[in-house]
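Usage example:
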Amino acid sequence: MKSKVQDELLLNVKNRLENCEDVIYQSLRIHGSTCTIIYIESIVDISTLHEHIVKPLIKEAAQVQHNFDNFIDCMDRGDTLSVPFERSASAEYIANMIVEGRAVLIVEKLTESYLFDIVLYQKRAVSESQNELVVNGPQEAFIEDIGTNLSLLRHKIKHTDLKTIRYQIGDYSKTAVYMVYVDGLCKPEIVSQVDRQLKSISIDGTFGISTLSEQMKEGVKSPFPQFQYTERPDSVAASLLEGRVGIMQDGTPSALIVPVTLFSLLQSSEDYYHSFFSSSWIRIIRFMFAVISLLMPSLYVAITTFQPSIIPTDLLITIAASRENIPFSALAEALIMELTFEALREAGTRIPKPVGQTISIIGAIVIGQAAVEAGIVSNPMVIVVSITGIASYIIPHFELGLAFRLLRFPILILGGTLGLIGVFAAAFLVYGHMASLKSFNTPYLQPVAPLVISEWKDTFLRAPSMLMKNRPKAYASSNNLRRRK
Amino acid sequence: MTLLKLFKILLPLILLTGCGFSLTKVEINEQTFVFAMYINEGKQKGTVEVTISAPLPNRLTSGRQAGGHGGGDPYAMVTKTSTTVQDTLHLIQRDLSRRFDFSHTKVVVVGKGYAEAGLEDLMDWLQREPTTNLRTYLMVAPGDAKKVAELTPVFEQMPSEVLIRFATQHNMINTTLKDCLYAESANQGYALTYLAAQKKPMVADQEKLEPWTGIQGTAIFHNHRLLTTLPMQESLAVSWAVNEVKGPLYTVSWNEGAGRASVFLISTNSKKSVRMVNGHPVFTIKLIGIGDVIYKRNQKQLDTLEAKRIIERELNDMVKSELQKALSTSQRVGSDILQLGMLVDWNYPDHWEKVRSEWANYYKNEVEIQVVTDIRVRNFGTTLKMKPK
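Running the assembly step on the lines above writes:
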């Protein structure tokens, strides 16, 4: 008296999961009917499966006074098993759910099977933030598991207005993506825009969060990042309270924050964990070195080859003396050094950790020193390139640092061929470009362009928190009073 | 469209550059930076001898510090003679493997003979050459300007640096090209530092006799022509009057040399003013100074207020008479070295328009200059009394 329907369902599921040899089919016989539990061992919680699904089912089978109908009744009421379940009759859906980590119970004679969500992926423990270090303040960072990440975030914001909207992105990867925001603090337009853009994404799979940002049509307009990447829950939480929107993806420890401005990318969460004196001073230093990292090599080349008259005389002699036997022009010298430095830096990131630091440092010193002694590059150039290199690491957001690193080369070539006029024209164009950029309808240079002087206290300085009564105008909704007193 | 936008953005930038828009790219090691120029009259009449002095960076290669010169001096001098300064420089350039750059020319020394013949030629060149600096110091050498360049730079790397230090340390009046051009455009005169060149035994160089350069006073010009020179003390008073002297030291004596004291002036200041008396300007130059007594011969004089008053009186008299002497010399030759004409221009512009063209003569004959001094001793200092009563 085998049900044809049930047989067909099992067969269909089996067909779809053909050649997937990590799928386990476990059969039980309960009150005269065959039940099959299907799951993938590596992605389900085996102990839950055994303790709360298999064991109660066996017990149920041993209940002599029950019959099949009682059993189905109890199952449907949820009396037999403590694990929540959903039901489905679609073989395709069931197969999809199995590869997403559900355990499926197909009962003979029943058209609908039971799906138990007992997914458990391999994950690491929450660890310290690796890329965004702070001295004071919280140390924990996101991990690859979205559940853990949401729990880290809910730990920081315990409010019903914290909304988490789930999306599934990737035809094959079926990655869970969450948009998180605080209702009432952020502008509804931004939420609906992010929502629209996330829904419109259609790709095979997404593994790093930058795939998302590129798909969202905002990320390819400019070398400057339109998204802020962070691996720190506290950064996300603070941004949400400013009225920004977070995007979190399963399988990656970084989250996206939108919208961004140039100045938000030049802030570090550490700024808010120190006294405002030191934070303000650090911000000033950061702005100074951000400019240095963009312009210093080109200014050096432009001044030494076009306008040596503006160098102080003593410095001029020093530079002239060290450049005396250099076979290359200043521009070529700068390009050689900058390219070498970029290569060293890239190699330094890819080298396995145990050898990495020593080799990159020694490599830099040896190459720099030897090149100078061999008379290929001059000493001041090595200093300029090193300062620029250090300066580009002072930018707290890696993506912005990358943009500056990239733009340095065209500016350098302009500076080396047209002199100071070339440097200024390039700086002008970069500034113009940034002023025209918008990240989710927020001007990139706010609060400088458009001018909002009241926000400068948290842009160029970091005013004491009692002075920062309002949330930033760039993102916040009408409810922008941060402090009531 | 995008190109047009780009052009619109960059247009103001290109317009802003003006005349300074130079696209000449010269590597720093393909230029030679002239640090000093020395100008003499040529041996033949109507010629000029120009010497340029430039550092040799290859003798100052990195690693080896300057001063420890391995193969000779770290600077080079090239001399040529031709009819004008411009021609001569052109001749030098033709023989030189590197391009001139005058943007770091800080000092121009002219020989006395050339100065007496007139500096118009040089001034014209300095104004026309685009790379020269208006802050270039001008100085006068007694006789041959090259002799000054031969000085042994004991403390510095190059002779030109020694000369620049003379000016920047306010040892004497530090007249720049700009001052000269200002003064001359208003038909006034100017004063340049007058150097001294001699031989001195050098302790640093095994007591060898080496050329040594110092300051001996100021040279007074009018119409770019050297008219006369002032000795040291008078020059110092003039420098004070134009606020260009720092920390001068005066020693006064009284009672036929029985009393003597030295005063180091911590702050010096001067004020110039003009008023019209009977249709002619009367200038008042006030020298203000505050000093410390740093030496006092302790015989007979007690450390009393009386002694302080004597010192102040003697000091005031001394400075006043020196400035008066200097100014009477300048009036005698008709060179308004303090640019007092400017005061008339600012305060009585109508009167200035009348006398401007004849200012030299007017200054010589019709102008009265009063000198007022207000020099005080602030710290008199106490000394142990050897024989207390």
